Amino acid sequence: TKAMTGHTLGAAGTIELALTTLMLKLQRTAPSLRCSIPSDEIAMLPDAEPVAIPGNAALSTSLAFGGSNTALIVRKIEETEQPENKDILNAQITISAFASLQAGEPTPQKMLEICRKYGLRRLDRLTQLSLAAADAVADAVSNCKDTALITVTSYGPAVTTCKVLDDILDFPEEEILPTGFSHSVLNAAASYIGTCLKIHGPTFAVAGFEDPFREAVELGRNLLAGKRCSKVLIVAADEEGIISRAAEKLRTGSAPVFTEGAFALVLGTEENGIALKLTDAVSGERLLSCGVPADFADQLKQKAEKITLCKLAKPLWKVLF
Questions:
Q1: Domain housing 142
Q2: Could you tell me the pLDDT band of residue 2, with boundaries at 50, 70 and 90?
Q3: Is 258 inside any structural domain?
Q4: Contact 257/103 with Cβ under 8 angstroms?
């Protein structure tokens, strides 16, 4: 579950994030715990009473882990009039760019070029797949600073997580690379994509086994209809590993997917884009285990004027005793 939910430091960061959100909303700080007992080790005096604060943003480093220097900026967004549910469901969204990476892509040479382009090294495989797909559509979001980013996966960086656990068992603590640990959480790929493409809009990580790609597209539609962003970049990726192969063998009702790959999609509201319609029809074949329908990718490759995104058949799982 670590690849899906993070770790204990994430819990501390979440607590601070909730407190920071309240402070930005109320425009004041909360009194410090045990404020009546100052400490010589703390350079600043604690707040005994609530203190008014200006500004609409805060910087947090409580989500840093595994030797990384992760920083999170939280910004207060002014409330806007929200559309009705029927307006969201009827909102017209279009596709301005897409990219599909099959098994074996990106090649080592292509990945080397991407790493040199952005000054990166030591990327895990899931991040490589996700970043390569995002880089292929980077031009479509290059001039849009409020682009929303949604990453989609079924198994996350499970291969990296298992390797880190093996290293913990096989090697002394000082010989374990912190980069592997920091890549073993679900949102690692999103952080690289956001940094490399300079994306500053809302960011989400969607994980699931049934139809997470469809859920991500619906989320993107809601963000566009609610005017939370101008464009949405959706990056779906899964890598092949011992866990994904075992899990796919247990899935019935739809063909198992024993491959890895990535798929990137840019959504917007431009009239000159390819119209996208979400239907309740059911499609059985998956391009990737994380839910990209095979016929959806085929429609895009054939450059159809209108694209239809169907639902995937809900998988049934074999029960092992």
A1: 85-317
A2: very low
A3: yes
A4: no
